[in-house]
Amino acid sequence: MTPPSPEAASYTGREATWRGGTPPPLPRIGPAGWVLVALRGAAVVSVLLIGVLLLLPLRAGERLAAGPRRPVTGPWVQGVCRLSLWCMGIGWRRIGRPMRGPGTVVANHSSWLDILVLNAAMPVFFVSKAEVAGWPGINILTRVTNTHFVARDPRLARQQAAEFAARTAAGHRLLFFPEGTSTDGRRVLPFKPTLFQGFLDPALPEGLAVQPVTASYHAPPGRDPRFYGWWGDMDLGPHLLAVLAQPRQGSVTVTLHPPIPVAGQDRKRLAAQAEAAVRSAMDA
Fold this sequence. Notes:
Order of helices and strands: HHHEEHEHEHEHEHEEH
Largest sheet: 8 strands, mixed
Number of domains: 1
Structural class: alpha/beta
Oligomer: single chain
Mean pLDDT: 87
Helix content: 40-55%
């Protein structure tokens, strides 16, 4: 089995960076904006902190009762992310239902907000390059949320493939970004077929399916349509502050498409079908 590539999977490190035009200038933050930054920031940090502190004992008990499965902490993280978006003032809605049975999730990638937005839609576990595991601050979040790390080392390919199969068999929904980078939120880049090779291994559970997901961001009134996009060489801090300072927020719609059965597919067809599904909701 060929493990998914870190470039296609990473949601934090963007090595293959998309450079589609100049990002819009961030709005100036006035006194009222800084008040919103303080209030919303404190609310989100409190929600995340309390959520993490309560998550640890929940996971300990869950591990004893359910082993590697996450029947309690998965929905718990989902609720924490929904509450965080509410604290930020960002509207959120979901269309469609999470898949049932063994499978993985693929989605378009537009922003750091995807972490909250996609976790709010369904219990998922992000996949990231191994280097992120050592990043200060972010490494705590990724460990707590049980992020699945992959390394670009052929010697570890078999081990990583076995870990991927084990987590899938345990019912974990591993979420991948097949574009390999983030965009301005107004488009879907071609999906990399190499990622989908990892879904075809016979060692994976029978009946495996891939569920495409589209996250469509709608900018606040009067703002550039790319307001929530985070791509290219944009710095995280200023963009995060600009979002928190926005007086009237926009919204995001998450569309869960029908799962695509893996059986009888090849990686190119699987990638094309998933891309077409994600693109259909973005175009709409």
